[in-house]
Amino acid sequence: MDRPAISFPSLLYKKSVLIFFAVAFLFAAWVTVVVGPPVSEKPAGVVVDDDEANSTEEESLGLEYERYMREVVKLLESDEEFRKKLESANSSDIKSGAIAQHLNFVSKSIRSKLDELKRNELERLRTVLRLKVRQAHPDSGDRLPPPALHELEKLFGHLDSSNQHSFETKDLVKLIKRTTDDLEDIDRRRREDFKRYEMEKEHLRREEMKGLPTEEREKKEKEHEEMEKKHREHPKVHHPGNEEQLKDVWEEGDGLERDEFNPRTFFYLHDTNSDGFLDPVELEALFQKELDKVYNENATEDDMMERYEEMNRMREHVMKEIDANRDSVISLEEFVNSTQREEFKKDEEWDTLEDERQFTDEELAAFEKDLNERQHASDVTPPTTTLSMQQQQHDDQQQQHVDQQQHVDQQQQQHVDQQQQHVDQQQQHVDQQQHDDQQQQHDDQQQQHVDQQQHVDQQQQQQDQRLHFEPQQQPQHDQPKGVI
Ligand SMILES: *[C@@H]1O[C@H](CO)[C@@H](O)[C@H](O)[C@H]1NC(C)=O
Ligand SMILES: *[C@@H]1O[C@H](CO)[C@@H](O)[C@H](O)[C@H]1NC(C)=O
Ligand SMILES: *[C@@H]1O[C@H](CO)[C@@H](O)[C@H](O)[C@H]1NC(C)=O
Ligand SMILES: *[C@@H]1O[C@H](CO)[C@@H](O)[C@H](O)[C@H]1NC(C)=O
């Protein structure tokens, strides 16, 4: 399988923690490569964002503070001394943030750029915060209620907001920890999203059935059963990582003699970026033949979202079995060790997704109830089902942010009474109140792209410029925007 080019700072790649970067990083490119273009019969729609359509290089990890994180990493990398430290650090040093102490040896010019970066980030966060509060309370007029405490922590958790001026060790520790935590959470979020996807699919199917006359419904039910049956008919799937499975790859993929299988050679052949580890991407490439047995992009009975989930399940399974030190990559020693175990020789059939229920009746009922409530809560929104289905199918990250937004909104409502604790932030809202009207017109966009800092930054810039050059904001005298 072709590997999309990786351009994220290569030194970060070596270390396990940051392998998670790779996984998320490649996600978007992957959906196209592995999952293939959507098949028309599937309940799918491609959500292609104009801004992201051809930016393979800057594929989003889905972190709210991602641009800031990348800029910090880029600056630190440009410091020779720091880069050396980072290269020689072990994963626990990175994970714990201990690496941050080396910040003290970073050159002055880079330090001052970091300071500036942080000040800009704080500025951006204030804008985002104000937007969120505004969204949660569209009718609040001039007096915006204060944001919830968790919301502040969530938004400002990747830096030390008690120091508004300079970038210090504490900022780097927080940034590293936050990024690591968030990225390690990716698999859990993926599983949750998948479950929701499956429930939504079932929900839609049931809804469709409800509206049909008995005869038609029986016919459809029968068709559905046949499709499921057809999907279940496939050649035996090997346990990922066992001898037969690897030998298939060796023979069919690598074109080598089955009897001459050699674990070391195999390892080197499939460590395609030659960094001495099999990382999640390299591992998942090994499962494609097994996946092909079950999921064909052209078959209406096969769902490519399920293929993607199956691939992830396989990776998680192999990691659990082989990755002895739990650093999320497989070393040569770990790999060779695994081939000497008894289980390696066993060739039990792998239970694919369809062999287990993805959700219980109770979970589906709760899901439908929630969906119903949300639909009633707003007549304006298009049918939630179709909308979120599309998002889940092709835009995990977007879904995740929509969810966060909903969560945020709930939290906001519950914490109107925390005024005193947030006097500072409140002050900032009030100061910037005069610009909220412009902000409002971007709200729709914003709702779907809270994480797209470019947008926010642009708005921020416009605002700043207006703030500085057009202090008297009077709509009737306004020149067309951007004439500054
Ligand atoms: C995307 O690709 C098109 C051509 O394929 C190019 O004209 C456009 O500038 C690219 N956009 C970005 C943001 O790189
Ligand atoms: C990582 O390196 C530090 C010293 O830089 C050392 O104290 C620590 O034990 C090492 N941890 C591991 C897991 O190797
Ligand atoms: C699906 O159909 C396309 C076009 O007919 C073909 O190129 C492709 O190889 C098919 N894929 C599989 C897995 O059969
Ligand atoms: C590989 O197996 C040997 C012998 O059982 C063991 O000593 C060694 O720690 C193992 N290595 C890894 C990385 O698990």
TrEMBL record:
Q: Kindly give the membrane topology term recorded for this protein.
A: Peripheral membrane protein
The segment annotated Disordered runs over 205-240, 338-484
In this chain, composition skew of type Low complexity spans 399-431, 447-464
Top-level division of the source organism's lineage:
Eukaryota
Q: Which residues cross the membrane?
A: 12-33
Entry keyword annotation includes Transmembrane:
yes
Got a GO cellular component term for this one? extracellular region
Q: Which Gene3D superfamilies match?
A: EF-hand
One example of the protein's molecular function in GO is: calcium ion binding
Q: Which SUPFAM superfamilies match?
A: EF-hand
* The keyword Cytoplasm belongs to this UniProt entry's keyword annotation: yes
Please list the residue ranges that the record marks as compositionally biased, kind Basic and acidic residues. Answer: 205-230, 355-377, 432-446
EF-hand domain sequence ranges: 258-293, 310-345
Keywords for this protein: Calcium, Cytoplasm, DNA-binding, Golgi apparatus, Guanine-nucleotide releasing factor, Membrane, Metal-binding, Phosphoprotein, Repeat, Secreted, Signal, Transmembrane, Transmembrane helix
**Subcellular location, record wording:** Cytoplasm; Golgi apparatus; Membrane; Secreted
The entry assigns this protein to a family as follows: Belongs to the nucleobindin family.
State the protein's name.
Answer: EF-hand domain-containing protein
Per the UniProt record, the source organism is Helobdella robusta (Californian leech)
Task: From the UniProt record, report the name of the gene that encodes this protein.
Answer: 20195667
